[in-house]
Specification:
100 residues; alpha+beta; 5-stranded antiparallel beta sheet; elongated
């Protein structure tokens, strides 16, 4: 009997480096935002090893999710299009501008 060979598809989102998670955590504490790390996240058939959901303390809905792809960091606001950045620091800097 011949076995079928399938090539696994890599997840859309990859895990963050520990240093990036520490940076995000510090940013959330400074800006009074709640950070939730969600593992093995799946949306509309796309798989993510890890996403970071950011919630403002005055709302129960998430404000943004962040994930890392093979080549960039993506920020997806609750409403709007995802934005792509070279690093977590740039992504967080863009959120500071939104908060102002």
């Amino acid at each position: 009997m011949e076995m079928l060979r399938t090539t696994p598809t890599p997840p859309t989102g990859l895990s963050f480096d520990i240093a990036d998670l520490i940076l995000i955590k510090g940013w959330t504490e400074y800006h009074d935002v709640r950070m939730v790390v969600e593992l093995d996240h799946s949306v509309e058939g796309e798989e993510y090893e890890e996403v970071v959901a950011l919630y403002t303390n005055d709302r129960m809905l998430r404000r943004w999710i962040l994930w890392r792809s093979a080549c960039d960091v993506v920020v997806q606001p609750l409403l709007g299009r995802p934005r792509h950045f070279d690093c977590v620091a740039d992504a967080l800097e863009s959120l500071i501008a939104v908060e102002s």
